[in-house]
Amino acid sequence: MNVSYQWLSEYLDLTGISPEDLADRMSRTGIEVEDVFIPETGLKKIVVGHAVKVEDHPDSDHLHVCQVDIGEDELSQIVCGAPNITAGQKIIVALPGSRITGNAKIKKGKMRGQVSNGMICSLSELGFSEKVVPKKYADGIYVLPDDAVPGESVFSYLAMDDALLDLSITPNRADALSMRGVAYEVGAIYDLKPEFKTISLDENKSEKIADYIEVAVEDKNDTPFYSMRMIKDATIAESPMWLQTKLMNAGIRPLNNVVDSTNYILLEYGQPLHAFDYDRLESKKIVVKRARSGEELDTLDGETRQLTNEMIVVTNGEKPVALAGVMGGLGTEIQDNTVNIALEAALFEPVAIRKTAKELNLRSESSSRYEKGINQDSILTASAHAAALIKELTGGTIVSGVAVVSDLDVKNKLVSITLEKLNRSLGTKIKTDEVLSIFSRLGFDVTEDNGLFNVSIPPRRWDISIEADLLEEVARIYGYDNLPSTLPIIESTPGKLDDKQRIIRHTRHYLEGAGLSQAISYALTTPQKAGQFLMRESDVTQLDLPMSEDRSTLRMNLISGLLDDVHYNSARKNVDVALYEIGRVFYKNDDSILPIEEEHLAGVLTGSLIESNWQEKAEKVDFFDLKGILEGLFETYGLTEALTFVADKEQEGMHPGRTAAIYLGEQSIGFIGQIHPLTAKEYDIKETYIFELNLHPIIEGEKHPTIYAGIPKYPGMTRDVALLVDETITNQQLTELIYEKGGKYLRQVRLFDLYQGNKINEGKKSLAYTLSYLNPKDTLVEEEVTKAFEKVINALTEQFNAVIR
After folding, report:
1. Which pLDDT band holds residue 610 (cuts at 50, 70, 90)?
2. What is the pLDDT of residues 570-580, one digit of tens each?
3. DSSP symbol at 595
4. Mean pLDDT, the chain, as a whole number?
5. How far from 116 is each of 76, 637, 656, CA to CA, in Å?
6. Which residues, 6+ apart, have CB-to-CB distance to 78 below 8 Å?
7. ∠ CA 550-551-552, rounded to 5°
8. Which of 295, 314, 315 shows the shortest CA–CA distance to 305?
């Protein structure tokens, strides 16, 4: 909203307060001023001229040769092409050497052989926007009033020497969408009391409003207040200069003395008004109601609007004549031959006005104020002021009385706050007298009793209703710059990771170190993929309104998403893929709307983990590559319970001979193995190995304490042994037995060879192990190691019928 500094000075004594200082203070107290602009900036040597003589140019069919009085001894000749130039007019003249808008310089010259000493200007050439130039002068020059003095600067006549403050009004401060509201705000900032002229309404007592207009409202929730006044025998004409300049500086186009009066009151009070041509209403009764779907209305902008039953309209009892609170109808607009005027002042439901303006893409000065709220206490005051101004400018008479339908009960609101609350919240030590002074500056009546302030809020500040609002008012008038800068007093809590966060972070680091990259898949998938590779029985959880069928179901496994990633990479010739994902899976919960969520870890390997080079060849990954990565990961967890792998031929979607269930102690926590060839074909991928684990048992499982020890001072010993055993005996069974019988100095058992083939009987296999021994406190004795090793050999022979090779 543009606020005129000169207009504001009519209400307040701003002596010694520059527009720039005012803008700075307002911005620091809650209403941002985006810019301070003086329209005459950059313009010079533009004066009032008097067109004494106007003749047609001898060599042109549209140019005129004008003899213009510019306040000098001799007349100045200027060639002008404006169609509305005539002798006797007071006009705007840009002298030779002047600057007009766009920094264009005007020089002496000739136009088709005739000397032209300057330029006769339109308003647009002085920087006025085309949308605010009066229609009468839109295609020609602007004509100044007859009392303009030739030779004087034109800027004061057009109010271009005024400073315009561009306010950025937030929705909660709609009271500042009026000159009076801004005056109260500035008065509070500078401790000044605004003074407004008293309006006297001279009504014709011989005539009553009831003889002309009757108003009715179908729904008082839509229209809590509606009123009409009547002005008779008006003469429609151009508005005086002071009114036109105030409207143009505010961004409103002047039209005529009646419409301009309503717009002036809109700017002063923030109260939208509308003037109807009474005779064109064709009815004495005005009814405000919801429109019927399918009705049409030609609005003042010349557009035909399709109405719905959500829109409030003003009707003549039969058909709509205006869009309530948004725009009037073309059929009842004020025209040059209008004589009798019906003046509307009302309050409409904000949400309905907002919906109407949005539906029709028809935002107006009126609708924007109704949407944010208006001062309900000044509706009739604004209406009376407008009627008086219209009477003054048109010479009409005001019919006595006002037709009103009202459901309003406008009262001051009482809001309380304590001094202790103010100082505690603001961190200040404001005294009672200072608080009372602030409320007085704001124009609020207040009483104080033992530190409790009871504040009476006038209707013009409808944004204040609770204690926090009073707190804000005191803070901004006291000055945000004066509030102490303090840090909040809170208890410091050292930050650390919980067990889940720590284990997940460690898992990511370990797997990335092992050559796997993290993948993040969609939690939504198809019902078919959601039901694959299940670790527990569950129905699917489907969305009611999915974006697509491919994203309709919450996943119950991570593997299907990783296999999609493998397919995506393989299709783009990236055949070596190593990925892992940590994420949640969702199981149907019959006892709740929300599903059961579990944190899972999954991984996938295909192709090779290394590239061929001069030192080594790339080899395809197999079951044991992935198993080794998992074993290494679990070793770093330090779980007290043992990790075991048990062959599993029943896991759906997995190769029956290359799949194992994973147990932590006695609890099954996942599986590992090769994707079944048929499943791999469905995903269009090659030989691929995967695993998936439930992380909750790992997170909650008991773990060995972390004990740091120095590097052993004493050397260790190793023993190698090769065993021939039945192929049904697993490495895990052999390893467990070796640890059990290996004695207290056995530190590690490592399988370094597996052989089946020539010279090995069918149904047999050869396994070779290295056993590492270490005594951290003393040098190992050969006899001790040999004795412990022999116990292992005997146990293997007795329990598994192993043949030592």
Report:
1. confident
2. 999 999 999 99
3. P
4. 93
5. 8, 95, 103
6. 49, 66, 68, 93, 116, 117, 118, 119, 120
7. 100
8. 295
Instruction: Give dist(CA 771, CA 769) in Å, integer.
Output: 6
Strands 688-694 and 717-726: unpaired
Q: pLDDT class for 490, splitting at 50, 70, 90?
A: confident
Residues in the chain: 805
pLDDT tens for 361-378 read 999 999 999 999 999 999
- The H or E element containing residue 788 is helix 782-800
Beta strands 397-400 and 225-232 are antiparallel
pTM of the full structure: 0.66
Token digits of residue 277: 């041509």
Closest CA to 206 of 401, 380, 344: 401
Using CA atoms, how far apart are residues 717 and 774, in angstroms rounded to an integer? 7
Phi and psi (nearest 5°) for 175?
A: -65, -20
> What ranges make up the beta strands (E) of 129-242?
164-168, 203-208, 214-217, 225-232
The per-residue DSSP string of 683-745 comes to TT--SEEEEEEESHHHHHS-BPPP---PPPSS--EEEEEEEEEETTS-HHHHHHHHHHHS-TT
**169: helix, strand or coil:** coil
Amino acid at 351: V
Write down the H helix ranges in 311-418. Answer: 350-360, 365-372, 379-394
CA–CA separation, 477 and 486 (whole Å): 20
Q: What is the CA radius of gyration of the chain?
A: 45
Q: How far apart (Å, rounded) are the C-alpha atoms in residues 479 and 475?
A: 6
- Structure-token pair, residue 14: 């701003």
Residue linked to tokens 């019902």: 527
Concatenate the DSSP letters of all residues of 597-661 into one string.
EEEEEEEEEESBSS---SS----B--HHHHHHHHHHHHHHHTBSSPEEEEE-S--TTEEEEEEEE
Q: Round to whole Å and give the CA distance between 481 and 765.
A: 86
Residue 759 pLDDT level (bands cut at 50, 70, 90)? confident
Q: What is the DSSP string of 387-455?
A: HHHHHHHH--EEEES-EEEE-----PEEEEEEHHHHHHHHT----HHHHHHHHHHTT-EEEEETTEEEE
Question: Could you tell me the two tokens for 152?
Answer: 């004087």
d(CA 370, CA 358) in angstroms, rounded, equals 13
Q: Between the CA of residue 404 and those of 1, 549, 640, what are the distances in Å?
A: 31, 60, 86
Q: Give the pLDDT score at 675.
A: 95
What's the CA gap between 61 and 84, in Å, rounded?
14
DSSP category for residue 221:
T
Angle, helices 257-269 vs 241-249, to 10°: value is 50
Taking the C-alpha atoms of residue 339 and residue 232, their distance in angstroms, rounded to an integer, is 6
Burial bucket for residue 91 (CB in 10 Å: 0-12, 13-18, 19+): buried
